[in-house]
Specification:
The chain is mostly helical. It has 2 domains: 1-118, no CATH class; 131-213. It contains 10 helices and no strands. It has helices at residues 2-16, 19-28, 42-49, 51-70, 90-107, 120-127, 132-149, 152-173, 181-198, 200-208. The longest helix has 22 residues, at 152-173. The radius of gyration is 18 Å and the shape is globular. It starts with a helix and ends in a 14-residue tail after the last helix.
């Protein structure tokens, strides 16, 4: 139990590394949470500092989730301190636990007053190591929705919702065997609702027509 607790804490701390805040302070000497939407995530960095810095932060945030799953989770050895009733092997279950802890750390970072980003990129990094096919589909949905709507938040929401839908279609319509389907489906449904919760203000802004749209054009200097 102690080892699993250590893995959860370490994963949380890795997820808590405030990439957006670090990059915004290094590049422009500002706290990104005091600008734009107030989020410390890559999307807000993209709006305030430009797409290059935003993409860089998104990559860093995704790496946090991947690191928790691929590296931190490997500290685990021996039997689980509880009965594993899931179809996953013990290590995969530990990977999921570590990844969730990293996402929680990103959203409620201990290094920045428990106010971080929305967890999308970190969840992406975590899940792409576990359900690669669904994450590639989600990435395609994200790019398509953002290209059409210019709303990054809508793209994130659509991508998150597409993951459980994709799992259901693959297992029940296409009759592909998805390893651990009965366990991963409730998990990704929970994750989709979690993403909706962290984007609740963005949803209201989209309906009100006040949500910021992504603009790839360079800002002209005054």
């Amino acid at each position: 139990m102690i080892l699993l607790a250590i893995i959860v804490i370490l994963s949380y701390l890795v997820g808590s590394i405030p990439s957006g805040i670090i990059v915004s302070k290094a590049v422009k000497g500002i706290d990104i949470r005091e600008h734009g939407s107030g989020s410390a995530g890559g999307t807000n960095v993209m709006r305030v500092l430009g797409w290059k810095h935003g993409v860089f932060v998104i990559i860093l945030d995704a790496m946090k989730g991947a690191f928790a799953v691929v590296v931190v989770a490997r500290l685990f050895y021996g039997p689980l301190p509880f009965v594993n009733i899931s179809p996953f092997d013990d290590f995969t279950l530990v990977q999921i636990i570590a990844g969730v802890a990293a996402v929680i750390g990103h959203v409620w970072t201990v290094f920045a007053g428990f106010k971080g980003g929305k967890g999308i990129a970190t969840a992406l990094g975590m899940l792409i190591m576990i359900i690669t096919v669904e994450m590639l589909i989600a990435l395609g949905v994200f790019v398509l929705v953002v290209t059409i709507s210019k709303y990054v938040s809508l793209g994130s929401l659509s991508a998150a919702i597409s993951i459980p839908i994709s799992l259901i279609l693959r297992e029940n319509v296409l009759h592909e065997h998805v390893s651990g389907y009965t366990t991963i489906l409730p998990f990704v449904i929970f994750l989709a609702f979690f993403v909706i919760y962290t984007h609740r203000k963005n949803v209201i802004k989209i309906f009100n027509g006040t949500e910021n749209k992504l603009n790839f054009k360079k800002k002209q200097k005054s």
